[in-house]
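Task card 7
Instruction: Convert sequence to structure tokens.
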Amino acid sequence: MIFSRISFKLVLIVGISLLGMIALAPIALSTLRSQMIADRQAKTQHMVDVGYGILAHYQKLESDGKLSREQAQAGAMAEIKSLRYDKVEYFWINDMTPRMVMHPIKPELDGKDLSAMKDPAGNALFVGFVDVVKKQGAGFYGYLWPKPGFDQPVDDTEASVAARLSGVQLAVQALLAKRPHRHSSKEASHLTRPTAG
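Output:
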């Protein structure tokens, strides 16, 4: 009888402990997932700062009279076009119309008005980027876009980060593919860092 009471209490303690761990597992996984997304967003934000710095450098060269506007724009675009991080992630430049200024993977978009372009979910993605920049000055924007080497968007939500230079109506944006997990397009956002002009 003593053994059965001890066994019952031991089984009860183990059972309650297991139930507690099972109950906490989704919370821990959700927290881990959120932290992974935040880390990737912070990394992408830092990468956009590189593109932003390139634009600012060429803008300064132009304002100092060392380069013409055309030379400064061509130099900045060439540098940003060649930038990659995480081997496949890239930067592009669009203006606030939105019109594509430079896209390194899809050069056929260069010079095109993108206001009517929608992703498969129906989001007017480039209009959304510009709206976030104008309204918030910073944030991530979710959309679907084909990764390099794919014709159709893959099952990942992607977000981009933008940096806007004051006085220059351009946004430098970086692709952020959220590969570790699958997300709905509502879970991502879009970021901009305006400068004091």
